[in-house]
Design a protein that fits this description.
Radius of gyration: 31 Å
Number of strands: 0
Order of helices and strands: HHHHHHHHHHHHHHHHHHHH
Number of helices: 20
Shape: elongated
Structural class: mainly alpha
């Protein structure tokens, strides 16, 4: 009898030792995951899931351990945009919630995890274009979140954001804006109207307004974001965002026939942040936006100035030779409009040389014909090839 009792005690001790070791391994994996990314993170989460599954299915330990491990694995897949794999694991976790409601329902931490699960599950359905399903899941997560926290809690913002995204995809633009307005109220209270989060939200609103062709509202939103980034540039150090927002504003101003306002913003950026462009390519895109504004303003003095700036940039690289040739053509015809025929021919011949070097026979033939027409004409302008949008694009 005593021998049997000793054996049982030893078995209990052994089981407790194994359980303790496995729990320590799970905890250590959690620590390891902080420095992992991509497939390495997934591999760690798979290990964690395997140990959690053994604990719950063989040793009948708390099901919460298994649910957490499945959610963690799904999140690892989401980080590398493996939506289908993430969806599969999130649905598995959701089934465990439903089958163990007596354990999870009164556990606040698990209810918070369930909210996270539902939000990310809705992202998966959104990715797979199952929009109504995504919206219903997101609304369910919002109701659950509101039952745990009040409507002013910042955690509601993430859910409103996904609901806004889904409504945009459904072309329910007003409803999308309504949800972004709810986020705006939260951000004002929690972060302030000069925060980077608020600026990013303004850009998000600008995108939705633009898609819905409400261009004035889009401009207001982008302008708000631009001013926040400009006034807080030392804090945010986001020069690329300032430049891209300026370009977007110039595009929108051109669409509503206010090219000068667009040019003024780009000119301000050029003067203040000229040394902050990441590449020559970015600078070329920027200058072409300025040129588009000048063209729409019918200001050929500025049009010549910006084309000459673009020529200078392009001459500094062997790339974009076709763009350089087209820029030379634009400059030539601007000079022709100003009565400077010799300067016009100088630039057209420069373009011709580039076309020859690059073996572009069709463009070489076209520009040769234009040069001959100008040389044999008393007129200052060749109406067929005068500066137009095709050239400045």
């Amino acid at each position: 009898m005593e021998s049997q009792e000793n054996e049982e005690n030893y078995d209990d001790f052994l089981e407790a030792s194994v359980l303790n070791e496995m729990l320590q391994i799970i905890d250590q994996i959690e620590i390891n995951c902080k420095d992992k990314e991509g497939q390495d993170l997934i591999n760690e989460r798979i290990k964690q899931y395997s140990y959690a599954k053994i604990l719950c299915t063989i040793f009948d330990k708390d099901i919460i351990i298994l649910i957490k491990s499945i959610i963690n694995l799904a999140m690892a897949y989401l980080k590398i945009d493996y939506y289908n794999q993430a969806q599969e694991h999130l649905l598995d976790a959701l089934k465990l919630y439903e089958n163990n409601n007596d354990v999870t329902e009164n556990n606040k931490e698990m209810q918070e995890n369930k909210i996270k699960l539902l939000i990310n599950l809705s992202k998966c359905y959104l990715f797979n274009n199952k929009l109504e399903t995504a919206l219903n899941i997101c609304k369910k997560s919002l109701n659950l979140n509101l039952s745990l926290f009040n409507e002013d809690h910042i955690s509601n913002a993430d859910i409103y954001y996904i609901i806004s995204k889904i409504n945009t995809r459904l072309h329910n633009y007003d409803e999308s804006i309504n949800n972004l307005n709810l986020i705006e109220k939260l951000y004002k209270n929690h972060f302030g109207i000069n925060s980077e989060k608020y600026a990013k939200l303004m850009m998000e609103k600008g995108q939705v307004f633009e898609i819905n062709n409400k261009l004035n509202e889009a401009i207001d939103s982008y302008q708000n974001a631009y001013l926040i980034y400009k006034n807080k540039i030392e804090n945010f150090n986001k020069y690329e965002i300032i430049i891209q927002t300026g370009i977007k504003l110039s595009e929108l101003y051109n669409k509503i026939n206010k090219a000068k306002e667009g040019y003024d913003i780009l000119n301000e950026i050029d003067e203040k942040y000229n040394d902050k462009f990441n590449s020559i390519k970015d600078k070329v895109v920027f200058l072409r936006c300025k040129i588009k504004c000048c063209y729409n303003m019918n200001d050929y003095r500025l049009l010549l100035k910006e084309n000459l700036n673009l020529e200078k940039i392009l001459e500094g690289t062997n790339e974009n030779q076709k763009t350089l040739a087209k820029t030379c053509i634009s400059i030539g015809y601007i000079y022709l409009d100003g009565g400077k025929k010799d300067k016009c021919l100088e630039y057209l011949n420069k373009a011709l040389k580039i076309f020859r070097v690059n073996g572009d026979e069709k463009l070489e033939k076209d520009i040769t014909e234009k040069i001959n027409n100008i040389m044999n004409s008393e007129e200052n302008k060749d109406e067929d090839y005068y500066v137009n949008e095709d050239i400045i694009k």
